[in-house]
Amino acid sequence: MGVTCVSQMPVAEGKSVQQTVELLTRKLEMLGAEKQGTFCVDCETYHTAASTLGSQGQPGKLMYVMHNSEYPLSCFALFENGPCLTADTNFDVLMVKLKGFFQSAKASKIETRGTRYQYCDFLVKVGTVTMGPSARGISVEVEYGPCVVASDCWSLLLEFLQSFLGSHTPGAPAVFGNRHDAVYGPADTMVQYMELFNKIRKQQQVPVAGIR
Amino acid sequence: MADVLSVGVNLEAFAQAISAIQALRSSVSRVFDCLKDGMRNKETLEGREKAFIAHFQDNLHSVNRDLNELERLSNLVGKPSENHPLHNSGLLSLDPVQDKTPLYSQLLQAYKWSNKLQYHAGLASGLLNQQSLKRSANQMGVSAKRRPKAQPTTLVLPPQYVDDVISRIDRMFPEMSIHLSRPNGTSAMLLLDIWSKSNYQVFQKVTDHATTALLHYQLPQMPDVVVRSFMTWLRSYIKLFQAPCQRCGKFLQDGLPPTWRDFRTLEAFHDTCRQ
């Protein structure tokens, strides 16, 4: 597990999501990256049940339950700006039991799927973000395995991102700033994905609707 | 050996000389036989003495005769050993062709050189064996220097001294945890790195470079300086991911950060940028 940066790649003008992804993967392959199977990150939204809300008199908080194919035995539960819980996959069953407190939001499932590439010590995952039947955007995750302190290798990561994202290189993820000099963990990656998904949810549907 | 020498020499005289030597040896042994047998088988003391002396004289005469014969033959054979100190190659000097005449003296010179070289190499190997600089990629600690294998006399240090040096280095570099252990009584080992190969290419490269550095830093007279300078060098990797290459100014080259650190300036370079 190394330091990871998750960002969104805007869809190229006049191109579909699919075409933009292909463009990106071709660039990666030209760079010398090797294909290494696929990956998937999904996220489901829960909100606190109405019955428990009234007594406390505060607005309902959203909870996100996520899975990452990189950590197949784990399940992540996050609050926005809040704590992140890393649990076994059995946590999903527990959520069913907690129906009285947390209710699954309808049609809220959002996920990103795509190919996993290895380039030296970098792990690059380019995925198509889908919500229901429609493609909503492109996610790019870059992980640098050897380093576990985000502030140490950010400039190095940035240089790598620039090499294939060009002008769409993102700024430093917010989680990097939160944990100065601390060891980077899988939960930090999930927080980044959660933020990305939230951003994409708020966006308008992609004008040129990508077809899966 | 005699056969080799006699090539081009009077072979017949040689054969005769050898038989002369045999004759000489047999006559000499007859003299000693006679002396061993002493005086016996004679009636009177006088007769015994007379016969013995006559016999002894005969024998000595034959020895003398054989010796003279051998001497005569040896003159015939010549003196090959003087003429050809380098065996057959000595014949080169006899070559009448003009442009080949310096060949022999050059050959002698080369022979002297190689002799001298062998002598010095022998001395050097003796010295090196004493220092026991045997190191391999596996000995990733500074352990190699501290291992009194085959009793390298100059490197056996009092344990107190070793402890002292290590604790000083430990205090020098608070970022690194240095652990000193003595698995076999007196020999101390420094645990710096794990033995297994890293999954990451960066660290494989760094391991290679560290092995190189172990070979680079050596000064048998002052082992503590060696350990300290190696640790200083190793410490420069604290900025492995933060330091751009001093030559090309970039972080990445072929997907790797600058993994090389200069031995003296500790500057970061890519493996290919360092030349």
Automatic annotation (TrEMBL), chain A:
Q: Which GO terms describe its cellular component?
A: core mediator complex; mediator complex
What are the entry keywords?
A: Activator, Nucleus, Transcription, Transcription regulation
The molecular function terms of the Gene Ontology recorded here are: transcription coactivator activity
A Pfam family in this protein?
Med20
Q: Where in the cell is it found?
A: Nucleus
GO BP of this protein: regulation of transcription by RNA polymerase II; skeletal muscle cell differentiation
Record's superkingdom? Eukaryota
Q: What does this protein do?
A: Component of the Mediator complex, a coactivator involved in the regulated transcription of nearly all RNA polymerase II-dependent genes. Mediator functions as a bridge to convey information from gene-specific regulatory proteins to the basal RNA polymerase II transcription machinery. Mediator is recruited to promoters by direct interactions with regulatory proteins and serves as a scaffold for the assembly of a functional preinitiation complex with RNA polymerase II and the general transcription factors.
Question: Per its UniProt record, what PANTHER family does this chain match?
Answer: MEDIATOR OF RNA POLYMERASE II TRANSCRIPTION SUBUNIT 20, UBIQUITIN SPECIFIC PROTEASE HOMOLOG 49
Q: Which family does it belong to?
A: Belongs to the Mediator complex subunit 20 family.
User: What does the record note on quaternary structure?
Assistant: Component of the Mediator complex, which is composed of MED1, MED4, MED6, MED7, MED8, MED9, MED10, MED11, MED12, MED13, MED13L, MED14, MED15, MED16, MED17, MED18, MED19, MED20, MED21, MED22, MED23, MED24, MED25, MED26, MED27, MED29, MED30, MED31, CCNC, CDK8 and CDC2L6/CDK11. The MED12, MED13, CCNC and CDK8 subunits form a distinct module termed the CDK8 module. Mediator containing the CDK8 module is less active than Mediator lacking this module in supporting transcriptional activation.
Protein name, as recorded: Mediator of RNA polymerase II transcription subunit 20
From which lineage does this chain's organism come? Eukaryota, Metazoa, Chordata, Craniata, Vertebrata
From TrEMBL, chain B:
Q: Which GO terms describe its molecular function?
A: transcription coactivator activity
Q: Where does the signal peptide begin and end?
A: none
InterPro entries found in the cross-reference section? Mediator_Med27 (IPR021627)
Q: Does the UniProt entry include the keyword Magnesium?
A: no
Tell me the compartments it is located in: Nucleus
In the record, biological process GO terms are: regulation of transcription by RNA polymerase II; somatic stem cell population maintenance
Mind listing the UniProt keywords for this protein, alphabetically? Nucleus, Transcription, Transcription regulation
List GO terms (cellular component aspect): core mediator complex; cytosol; mediator complex; nucleolus; nucleoplasm
Q: Which chain regions cross the lipid bilayer?
A: none
Question: A Pfam family for this UniProt protein?
Answer: Med27
Recorded superkingdom: Eukaryota
Q: Which PANTHER family match?
A: 34 KDA TRANSCRIPTIONAL CO-ACTIVATOR-RELATED (PTHR13130), MEDIATOR OF RNA POLYMERASE II TRANSCRIPTION SUBUNIT 27 (PTHR13130:SF4)
What family classification does the UniProt entry report for this protein?
Belongs to the Mediator complex subunit 27 family.
* Record note on quaternary structure: Component of the Mediator complex, which is composed of MED1, MED4, MED6, MED7, MED8, MED9, MED10, MED11, MED12, MED13, MED13L, MED14, MED15, MED16, MED17, MED18, MED19, MED20, MED21, MED22, MED23, MED24, MED25, MED26, MED27, MED29, MED30, MED31, CCNC, CDK8 and CDC2L6/CDK11. The MED12, MED13, CCNC and CDK8 subunits form a distinct module termed the CDK8 module. Mediator containing the CDK8 module is less active than Mediator lacking this module in supporting transcriptional activation.
This protein is called Mediator of RNA polymerase II transcription subunit 27
Q: Which gene encodes it?
A: MED27
